[in-house]
Specification:
The chain is about 35% helix and about 15% strand. By secondary structure, the chain is an alpha+beta fold. The protein has a two-stranded parallel ribbon with strand order 1-2.
């Protein structure tokens, strides 16, 4: 997901930012949206 997905995420009842880029992750955290990392990076 990227900032291009924000208009759609704002329209749904339960937005989930999936594999968000850093900007979308920050916005999702600010708005209390769920964040789903399907491909978490390994340390």
């Amino acid at each position: 997901d990227s900032m291009n997905d924000v208009p759609l995420l704002e329209k749904v009842d339960h937005p989930v930012a999936t594999n968000p880029d850093p900007r979308l992750r920050a916005l999702a955290q600010q708005r209390g949206w769920r964040i789903l990392d399907l491909f978490p990076s390994t340390p």
